[in-house]
Each structure stands twice: as structure tokens, then as C-alpha cells.
Amino acid sequence: MSYNVNEKGYYGEFGGAYIPEMLYPNVEELRQNYLKIMAEPSFKKEFDQLLKDYVGRPSPLYFAKRLSEKYKTNIYLKREDLNHTGAHKINNTIGQILMAKRLGKNRIIAETGAGQHGVATATVCALMGLECIVYMGEIDIARQAPNVARMKMLGATVVPALSGSKTLKDATNEAIRDWINNPVDTHYIIGSAIGPHPYPDMVTRFQSIISEEIKWQLKEHIGKENPDYVVACIGGGSNAAGTYYHFLDNVNVNIIAVEAAGLGIDSGESAATSVLGKEGIIHGCKTLLMQTKDGQITEPYSISAGLDYPGVGPMHAHLSITGRAEFMSITDNDAMKAGLELCQLEGIIPAIETAHALAIFEHKKFKKEDVVVVSLSGRGDKDLNTYIDYFKL
Ligand SMILES: *Cc1c(COP(=O)(O)O)cnc(C)c1O
What we know:
Elements: E1 10-11, E2 14-15, H1 24-39, H2 41-55, E3 61-63, H3 65-71, E4 74-79, H4 89-102, E5 107-112, H5 116-128, E6 131-137, H6 138-143, H7 145-153, E7 157-161, H8 168-181, E8 186-189, H9 199-207, H10 209-222, E9 229-233, H11 238-244, E10 254-262, H12 273-276, E11 278-282, E12 285-289, H13 314-322, E13 325-331, H14 332-346, H15 352-358, E14 371-376, H16 384-391
Parallel strand pairs: 4-14, 5-6, 5-8, 6-7, 9-10, 9-14, 10-13
Antiparallel strand pairs: 1-2, 3-4, 11-12
Bound molecules: pyridoxal-5'-phosphate.
């Protein structure tokens, strides 16, 4: 059984490139070149250098002593929250901006929901002096004012998506429309391990630095490079894909994927795609997708903006169907409690997305000798208002 993408862009039955014909030249150009470019020594050198000097990698692998004592196991936190811009997303945008430059593109477009990917994209465009246009739903623009301000300060143009529900899905449609109209000079930076092939694989490879570092860092800590468990939260699945990547084929390393249950799986207000999703096509790939009986995409819900995506990346759909990964769903309430607990036990304020991954310890018992590595995907500064409202701080 392979858990990696095949030549045609499939993870088992999921993936592929289901795109309008007018998008074909752009996607095909990327498909034919991405592996070649990533393998070039000059590309690797520039990518590694920027990850080190600009992003601040390697991010620490931290043994969380008090958290481990509480749950009677060994918990290590992979500190992606300490990256420049506060999350793992910058690993991918650095990789893609270098890819765009090698492909001779001078105009960058992106979609964003909560604005985190928009900020990470605007950041690397400023770094490289490239034009940056970020599509964002009109409703999200109103909800996420600080991130809109950040993107503007970084020199990006934020274009409101006015159609449909005026959220992420509509912003994505606008970005695709733009790309069709500007096939020659524009690169579309997708923010998660989703979209048509080769995006899920390309994003996964850029994020795989996470598990590459975990291996040698764990060896430094405990003398062996493989943990018993790797754990990550899943929106589209990019921090998870990066955290799992170098362990996929080692079945002694258990994989746990954590989705947002929102108000509860059966509440109608949730983003637990692996449980509620059916096979369908979203943003150019075949995957598990929350939809009505007649195939209309249902609006997902989670208290964390980064997890309320109606689908899941095709790698994760495959990991779910094959049973390679154990999927757990965590409610808003349990995530918020786990977030506050990390603050008070370890002095780390996590993003609410990340707090979902931390909440599994209340629901699953680990052995005393188990080594559990959790991807601390991002920091909680952006979520302060949500924490304040929720806990009446
Ligand atoms: C965007 C985001 C996520 C979800 O995105 P993935 O692609 O599933 O990783 C998780 N955590 C943080 C902190 C984020 O910003």
C-alpha cells in the first residue's frame, strides 16, 4: 500500500486534476516542472537558506513536561508557532514563491478565508518584490480586519469576493477565474494540501520539513527517530501532511488526524469531513467532501476559522479510507479548554486550530512509555478575541 501520490496525481482513489479546460495549460506547466525545479541544487539551497534565516527554522521540538505529567505519557510539541508569521503556512508560501520565480511568473494570486494564508502570501511577495492579489470573501474581510490590515501593510491588494456566501469557497472561485484570465504571468499560491494535482503533493513536500526535523530532533532527545504517534489538526491538511510525511510508510508510527466537530458531529454545525463527507469534487480534486444529497457543498462550521473547510486534502481522504490514520473529531468546547490548558501548563498560547489537536488527550489514553509528537501548528495571538469572548476574560 502506498500513501504517497502516484504518477497520475492520485492517492488511492482520491486526487487528480478536475479542472476547466482553460486552466489546463497553467496546471500542466506546473505539473511538468515542479519536481524538476524542486530537485535543482540552487532551488534547494535558496529554500533552505530562507527557511533558516527568514522563517527561523529549525523550529524547536519541545518536551512538554507538565502536560506529559498530567496525561501520563510523553508529549513533544513541534513548535511551528515560532515560525515567522506565527504558523506553518510560511513553509509553503516560501516554497511556492521560489517556484513561481523559476517559472518566470511575476504576479501572484491567492485565496484566503481567515486571512492567515493571505498574510503568509503577502509576506513572501514583499520579500521577493512581486505583485500580490489576495481574494477574500466580503464577509471574511469584515470578520478578519487585523489580517486585512496586515496584508495591506505588506503591499498586497485585497479583492472582495461578492458572490455566493461571500466566504472562502467564493474567494477560491474568484482566484481561479483570475488565473484563467492571466495564464502567462501569474502563479496561484494555494494555501493547503488541496486543489488539482500537483498542488497537494507540492504543498506536502514543502511542508515535509516538519517531519524531517522531527526525526533528527527526536533522535537528539531520546536516541530514536520514530515516535509512537504523530498528531495534527486538519483543515485542508497541510500541517498534518508535513508532520506525517516521513512516517507514512512506517506503520509502527501511528497517525492521528484531528478534525473540528464544531458544535457536535450531529449538530449540523461541524467540519468533520472524514465522518460526514462523501466522495465528491472540490477545487479541482476528488476527495471527501461535506455535501447535500444532490451534491451541493454544505457550509462547514468550526470556532476556528482555519479548520472550517468543507473538504479535506486527498492524501487525508486516502489515509482515512485505508485506516492508516485514526481520525478523531473535537468540539469547539473541548478545543477551547485544551487551548487554555496549554497556556496554564506550559506557558504557550496556541492557535485554536492547534488546540483541537491538543484536546485528544482528554479522549484517548496513551501508555506511560508512548512518545507522542503533536504539531503545534500556530500561535494564538490571532485568536485572542475568541478566547476573551469564550472565557469572559
Ligand atoms: C491554516 C491553519 C491550519 C489549518 O490548515 P492545514 O492546511 O490543515 O494545516 C491549522 N493551524 C493553523 C495555526 C493554521 O493557521
